Amino acid sequence: MAATSTVRHPAVAGRFYPRDPDDLRSEARGYLEQSNVASEAPKHALGCIAPHAGYMYSGHVAGAVFARIEIPSRCIVMCPNHTGMGRALAIMSEGAWETPLGAISIDTDLAGALKQRFAALQEDPAAHRAEHAAEVELPFLQLLQPNLKFVPIALGTGQFDALEQLGHALADVVAAQKDHILIVASSDMNHYESDVVTRVKDHRALERILSLDPRGLYEVVTQQDISMCGFGPAIAMLTAARQSGAKSAELVKYATSGDVSGDREMVVGYAGVVVA
Question: How far apart are CA 53 and CA 261, in angstroms?
């Protein structure tokens, strides 16, 4: 990697997950191995939804998702933009991301093809620098695929048309590649309401996701006040997967933060979904 290449350093190591490589490897492997799907043959997936909270809360759900599927050497990881920094459709197409487990190169060819196909995607490392939602997925992917290259995309828009257009662009570019490419949508579900309310709201959103219905997901999230932070990545992933011939979506695991904390008054929901 050239000395001038952009290196994105970990923003939340030591907070959302362990900074020490051995501790991180042990914890992430534990979540992968404790999954009740770990004994099944990995599934060939077009896309998935995985949560991005601190590992103590949502690591077991993320681990269940990634243990369920084949992780190819090339992935696209889309996340919401929690920080508000940078462009609304922000991609990085050069350099690498570091985690405590080592550096992951950005897939420059794939990123370039996406920018060429969808001009609204803009080069913007600033949108990614402090954003945690893609970063927390990477150690799982690294452990399962040592040859990983990926394209990070941070979405700061909730406009359906833009998300749908991005999804079509993803499908077109993925179809033109010789390799299998997995699209990861990083998202938590409803935020900071009671466990009872959150489970009802999340069920409504998941019903649309499991029906492979991106427009329905958009409508239920926006009309029923469901604070699913990554509905944008989920809509783009579902749109791409449908165009690519997806036949099913499987809810691998669901939980709330209350399952860990014991606090049922104010929780965050976490869902793990595999689309194939």
Answer: 13
